[in-house]
Amino acid sequence: MTVPTNLADDDLLRLVASGNETAFTELYQRRQGAVYRFAMHMSGSTSMAEEVTQEVFLMLLGDSASYDRTRGPLVAYLYGIARRLVWRRMAHRQSHVPISGVEDEEARTPDYLISRSEVERDMVRDEAVRSLRRAILALPAGYREAVVLCDLHELSYADAARVLGCAVGTVRSRLHRARALLSVRLGPKKPSSSGCFV
């Protein structure tokens, strides 16, 4: 059975609840990247992000009825599940795994095809991204959550508040403090013109 790709998340979830595998595949393809990036930004671990993403969608598949659309959009609900899973895993591991800069060697462009200025520019950009990721991971948990949800995932303050289970004013306050800490840690570097850090 085919499912129109223009259906809203809530409509897809209703089809999933009735056993429609195609709807689940569409919903997974639509939202798994965001859930993965959220888990990655919160934990700094690709393996944890993969595990959390898989578990979030298995939980959704097993208990789609627990989602209440009146409490916010499905993506906020998925972030909420991912948030709990990340914190649970991090508590068990007792340490943060640094983000690795490992890349697929086969996918790299041969060095002789890249000009020196391109290499230098890429190195500077990559180091800036790594520095920013390290700074975000070093933030206190509540501040990190606010930055990841609002700046990296571009959730509204209201949706972020739903994910975090706090007031909108608390999200704004945490975000303000987090941005101040990041600006101190990162020195004269500034966020992009869009307001996003990465």
Report on this structure.
- The protein is an all-alpha fold and 198 residues long.
- The chain folds into two domains: 97 residues, RNA polymerase sigma factor, region 2, helix turn helix motif (Rna Polymerase Sigma Factor, Chain: A, Orthogonal Bundle), CATH 1.10.1740; 77 residues, Winged helix-like DNA-binding domain superfamily/Winged helix DNA-binding domain (Arc Repressor Mutant, subunit A, Orthogonal Bundle), CATH 1.10.10.
- It has eight helices and no strands.
- Helix 3 crosses helix 4 and helix 7 packs across helix 8.
- The chain is globular and about 55 Å long.
CATH-assigned fold name of the largest domain: Rna Polymerase Sigma Factor, Chain: A
Integer tally of domains: 2
CATH class category label of the largest domain: Mainly Alpha
**Reported CATH architecture of the largest domain:** Orthogonal Bundle
Following the backbone from N to C, one meets helices and strands in this order, namely HHHHHHHH
Largest sheet: none
Instruction: Measure the end-to-end span.
Output: 38 Å
How many helices does DSSP assign?
8
Rg from alpha-carbon coordinates: 19 Å
Overall morphology: globular
List unreliable stretches of 5+ residues. 95-110
Percent strand equals: under 5%
Quantity of strands, as a count: 0
Mean pLDDT value? 80
